[in-house]
Amino acid sequence: ESYRNISVAGAKPLAVTNCLNFGSPEDPEVMWQFERATTGLADACLELGIPVTGGNVSFYNQTGDTPINPTPVVGVLGVIDDVDRRTPMAWEDDGDLIYILGDTFDEFAGSEWAYLQGHLGGLPPKVNFPMERLLSEIMVAASRDGMITAAHDISDGGVGVAITEMALRANKGARFWIPDNIDPFVFLFSESTARAIAVIARTEE
After folding, report:
1. Alpha helices in the chain (DSSP H)
2. Tens-digit pLDDT profile for residues 80-110
3. In terms of Cα–Cα distance, which of 189, 153, 190, 152 is closest to 1?
4. What is the pTM of this model?
């Protein structure tokens, strides 16, 4: 998501920093969580081509024998040639066209919806690194070439939350249709990865 956030603004992701927060490493379960988190972070950096340039690890975050949930915090540094040409999150003009890029699947474990239901478990949305890289390249090129007027990554809360955030920032609503071949709840709230919203100016005929 951090990688995607940088890309939708039109910047090229270049480096990662992190703060890895866990319970006691003397607890085998906590140590397993830490090992899986660091392995996943390393795999992601290799696949996306961005190095970890700094960060820290914090252990023994717990009350008595109860550790916090594993909490890796990740930040990504990006570079843009001209910050005045960055892609904003808010759309501006009536009639602009809103597109959703990427594929949506029935994936809710670890999502904001699951959290609100009190559910902790299952497998989080599967990450498709080649698609993440392709989406990043598309968003950076589209921003550089002036092809899009606004963009936003799709992450916590899914499409429904992302569209709402854009509308609130713009102080202007939007109208869109849910495709017939997908369940409306999945379309609105799934947190599948490698997705973004791109807004394109309407062309006058």
Report:
1. 2-8, 28-48, 112-116, 129-144, 158-170, 184-189
2. 988 888 999 999 988 899 999 999 999 999 8
3. 153
4. 0.89
